[in-house]
Here is the input.
Amino acid sequence: MVPRIDIINGPNLNLLGQREPEIYGHETLAGIEATCRALAERIGLELRFFQSNHEGALVDRIQAARGHAAGIVINPAAYTHTSVAILDALSSFDGPVIELHLSNVHRREAFRHHSYVSSRADAVIAGCGAQGYELALWRMARLLGRA
Ligand code: CA2
Here is the structure.
């Protein structure tokens, strides 16, 4: 069976490629999704891609992954630094979780240095730009015994 990976993106990531390219790069979220889909097919993973600007919708989506997805890759965006609800939802998920940030949050403002999600994450990727999504899929494949 092909393992399903859910890639979940938080608030404002729908604006990727439209503003602040010096921080977040020129790629759009649709472009990242297309790259991930091509890679997932090569590695043998099924992908579900999701973005929301709403904390509750992200919690609902993480809950919906339970029992269906083998792993979660999540860029919680600003909720990284504020959301116990997203941490709790991820804690109810059984498979590997990879936390991902386009930018190197540790080289930015102090409020971005703390993540509520990291304590549940099996890996954290930051500062690799859009390529971070591909790295996360490779790591996920390894964690699931696929690569
Ligand atoms: O580096 C990341 O991926 C972040 O998760 C992005 C979040 C930020 O709050 C985190 O500290 C780090 C912000 C996403 C906002 O995305 C935008 C994209 C284009 C234009 C404006 C915002």
User: Anything to note?
Assistant: Strands lie at 4-9, 46-51, 71-75, 97-101, 123-126. The first helix runs from residue 21 to 24. The pocket of CA2 is lined by residues 12-13, 15-16, 18-20, 24, 75, 77-78, 80, 101-103, 105, 112 (CB under 6 Å). The CA atoms of residues 55 and 108 lie 23 Å apart.
